[in-house]
Design brief:
InterPro entries: Ketoacyl_synth_N (IPR014030), Thiolase-like (IPR016039). Residues 38-152 form the Beta-ketoacyl synthase-like N-terminal domain. This is Beta-ketoacyl synthase-like N-terminal domain-containing protein. It holds the Pfam family Ketoacyl-synt_2. By secondary structure, the chain is of the alpha/beta class. It has a single domain, classed as Thiolase/Chalcone synthase (Peroxisomal Thiolase, Chain A, domain 1, 3-Layer(aba) Sandwich), CATH 3.40.47.10. It contains five helices and five strands, in the order E-H-E-H-H-H-E-H-E-E. A five-stranded mixed β-sheet has the order 1-5-4-2-3, with helices on both faces. It is globular. The mean pLDDT is 89.
Length: 168
């Protein structure tokens, strides 16, 4: 519940993860056409697809992408390229904005709800659920796909939760 607004938490319809048993976490998720050199966007696409394999999305499904750090691999590549005077490929400009992969997911699965990206300084899971609860309470979406994604030295991870306001 969002205490200050009295909005209840959304109901989790389905959950998916990267990596999960059987995934090659070292090799990373399958490449995603139009995205290069990073696991960030492919992880988002994989967990979204896994969620939608378990439950068919409604047309007015929104996407909330949550990451404290964003696409670290792309950021490091751009930083090193600039520092070394190298040309930066145009796909890095495209994918450096997290909305790019969120929009890709919305387009691929025919979602017509809002797309929101947040980078919270506090608990990312809570921030994602709060954003989803607001979209559901405002009537902007009937469902929301909340994707939490991080790249870290301990391993890249992504979790997707398809949530609703409780009515199925």
């Amino acid at each position: 519940m969002i205490p200050t607004l009295g909005i209840p938490d959304p109901v989790v319809v389905t959950v998916s993860h990267w990596p999960q048993p059987g995934d090659d976490a070292v090799a990373g998720p399958p490449a995603l056409p139009g995205f290069v050199g990073s696991t960030f966007s492919p992880m988002v696409a994989v967990v979204a697809e896994r969620c939608f394999e378990q439950a068919t999305p409604l047309e007015r499904t929104g996407v909330v992408l949550v990451s404290r750090t964003g696409d670290l691999d792309s950021t490091l590549h751009v930083r090193e390229s600039v520092a070394n005077g190298k040309r930066i490929g145009p796909l890095y400009f495209f994918q450096s904005v997290p909305n790019s992969v969120a929009g890709y997911v919305a387009s691929r699965f025919g979602l017509h709800g809002p797309v929101v990206c947040v980078s919270p300084s506090t608990d990312p899971h809570r921030a994602g659920l709060d954003e989803a609860a607001l979209l559901l309470a405002d009537g902007e979406a009937d469902q929301v796909l909340v994707v939490l994604v991080e790249q870290a030295s301990t391993g890249d991870t992504a979790v997707a939760l398809l949530v609703s306001g409780g009515e199925q």
